[in-house]
Every structure is written in C-alpha cells, then in structure tokens.
Design a protein that fits this description.
372 residues; elongated; Rossmann fold; 29% strand; alpha/beta; 2 domains; Alpha-Beta Plaits
C-alpha cells in the first residue's frame, strides 16, 4: 500500500508545528514528536498518496516558510526499507537540517528518534532499499565544514557481528611505532625516505618494512619498552569501543604491520582476543635488523580476517574492520563493515563509513551498540 511520509523540522524556540484540524484522523499518529539538537522533529506516515493531499502539503509549506520551519514529504511504498541515520559530534541544528535535506533528495525520510543524548543522535530513516555508499559520500560532502561524523547505516540486529579487527598504528594507538623508534635513535630522516618511496610505489610493503628494520640493527631491546612507556598512547575512544564490542559478544583483535612487542602490550592493556604482527629478531638483547617469518602485510590482514571468521563459525560479512592506511584496504573491503579512521583519502573513498573527527567510540555509535 502506498503512503506519504511527512516531516517538519522547526527551530526549538518555535516549538512543534500544529497541523490543521481538518486533517482529522489522518495525522493522529505521530511517529516522532521530539526536540533534538536544537530542533523540533515531527514525522508522520500518512495512509494516502501525495496526489490525494497535494493541496494540503502546498499550504503547509507556505505556512512553514513564514515560520522558519522546513516541511518535507515523499511517497513511500511497501518496498521501502528502514535504516539508521547517525550524527556524532557537537550538536548543531544546521548539521541536522543539511543531513535531512540531503537525504530527502535521495527519497529518505526521517522517522522515530532512536537515541538522542549529548553529542549522539540516531534516528530511523525510511526510503529506498539498496547500497548506502553513495548516500554516505553525499552526506559528508553536504556537511563539509561542520566538524562532526555522520553515517547512514543498516539497522543490524543484536548478534549480527562476531568479530572486530583493528589496525594498530594511527588507529588503536596515536603513533607509528617504527617512526617513534627511528626518532628515538636519530634515524627518522632515513626511515621517512624509505616510507616515501613505498608510498610512491617504488617499494612494496614487505621490502619497505625489511629496509626500515635493517636500520634498527644493533638497537637495544629496551628501546621498545622505552617507546611503550614514554610515547605509546591509546587513540581516543579505543577502550570504549572494545568494551562496547565485548558487551555485544563480539571478539576483538589487533592486526598490524608493526611488531609483536607493541601488539602484545595492546592485547594486555585492552584485553583483546587476538593480536597479530611482525616478529623482530632479537639476539642477546639487541635487535638484529631482521624480521622473522612471514610479513603481516595488506593481503595477510585480509586473510586473517577470513580465517578468524571461519574459526568463529561465520564469514567476513559478519566482521568489522577499522584502519587508516592503504595496507588496511583489502581488510576493510572484505569485511561486512569497513570503517576508515582519520584515514588517507584513498581509504575514506573505499570504506563503508568514515570517522573524520571523533574518537574510535564513534564506531560504536555507527554500529548501534548501546543505542536503542
């Protein structure tokens, strides 16, 4: 059965808009009637077509224009689906207005408010079925200059996800471990030159890593402990994200192109279920400049996600991957949900969701963990 979804967004001081009594029972059931982020949001699902109430809608729009309110509507069909709109950041009426206007152009309409507390807002959207990638990229473009994170996500049920894998350097922690070691030893320029060649495509990750590690030959093993003690800091929201995942029954791991000494520290600090990284050869308390065994590179990260999913009796579609760099892309693309965290442009372009401003706990908000 076709229907019309109607929504009105009003400045909070003006309060909700009253509809004409002549509409009678047609507008009796309000799906949402709530003050959120400095606005009053009202929405209805009307059991009539747009054509049947076109004069009413036109008159309503004229009244709203004089009252600084916005009225939007769209036809809905039985094929319409429900998704979630999430905003995370400083509560701003302009952000909500831009978001709803942008989504209306794609035939999405707001429904009930799921969660509104402080900097977090989540509400149901009704609209067309299908992939949400284009909608998310348009939203981010529309909100350029407003410093908050935003996403349109499916309404996943509890238990949908089984595994979360996160990169380490510049994701779970705010540093690049090998760069910090290089700076501590006065080798930052040499290491940076190799990194630059790798980013330019002159070296693959494995070659780049081995060349950088060779520069560390002769370094006391205690240097690693010094870096961990003096420079390693968790990224904002890391503890909160891990706690939220575990509360949902999701297992959590770190998978890194860095070194096991750092991932083991993280595993203990965050009570992670898994930790994978490269193994530095250490003999007589000194780093030899060699890496033992296979390198954990981009392909290995994606393979580990697959293997862990299988071990949990599921597949990659029920996994989440979070990272910031190009070597996280295969893992991010393979996972059911890939999230770019303060990432390079190439990663943002291919991830399902982006965290550009907030901490890692923004991912919990996107995933609906802790929200209604």
């Amino acid at each position: 059965m076709s229907s019309t979804r109607l929504a009105i967004l009003s400045p909070a001081p003006r309060g909700p808009m009253r509809l004409p009594a002549s509409m009678g029972q047609l507008v009796a059931d309000v799906e949402s009637h709530q003050e959120v982020w400095g606005c009053w949001l009202q929405s209805w699902d009307l059991p009539v077509t747009v054509g049947e109430i076109a004069p009413f809608l036109d008159e309503l729009s004229r009244q709203a224009l004089h009252q600084e309110r916005e009225v939007i509507w769209a036809p809905m069909s039985s094929a319409s689906s429900a998704v979630r709109l999430v905003l995370h950041g400083a509560a701003q009426p302009e952000a909500l207005r831009r978001a709803l206007t942008t989504l209306h152009l794609q035939s999405f309409m707001p429904g009930r408010v799921l969660h509104c507390q402080g900097d977090d807002l989540a509400l149901v959207l009704h609209g067309p079925s299908g992939p949400l990638g284009a909608s998310n990229h348009r939203l981010i473009e529309a909100l350029e200059g407003i410093f908050l994170d935003i996403a349109v996500t499916p309404l996943w049920g509890k238990g949908h996800f089984r595994l979360l894998l996160a990169d380490m350097d510049s994701t779970l922690i705010g540093i690049e471990c090998i760069d910090e070691m290089a700076e501590h030893l006065g080798l930052r320029r040499q290491v940076a030159a190799i990194t630059e060649r790798s980013m330019a495509g002159e070296l693959d990750f494995q070659t780049s890593l081995r060349e950088r590690v060779r520069l560390l030959a002769g370094t006391p093993e205690s240097t690693i402990d010094t870096i961990i003690r003096e420079r390693l800091r968790l990224s904002p929201g890391a503890r909160e994200l891990v706690a939220a995942a575990k509360a949902q029954g999701v297992e959590v791991g770190v998978v890194s192109g860095g070194f096991t000494q750092f991932t083991r520290h993280l595993q203990e600090a965050l009570d992670l279920d898994y930790a994978f990284a490269n193994t530095l050869e250490i003999i007589d308390g000194q780093i030899t400049g060699q890496v033992l065994g296979d390198i954990v590179d981009a392909a290995a990260k994606a393979d580990l996600l697959d293997l862990l999913a299988i071990s949990l009796g599921t597949d990659a579609s029920h996994c989440i991957a979070i990272g910031d760099g190009a070597n996280d892309l295969p893992m991010i693309r393979k996972a059911g949900v890939g999230i770019a965290y303060h990432a390079k442009a190439v990663v943002r372009a291919q991830a399902d969701f982006q965290i550009r401003y907030g901490g890692l706990d923004t991912a919990s908000t996107y995933l609906g963990w802790g929200n209604a």
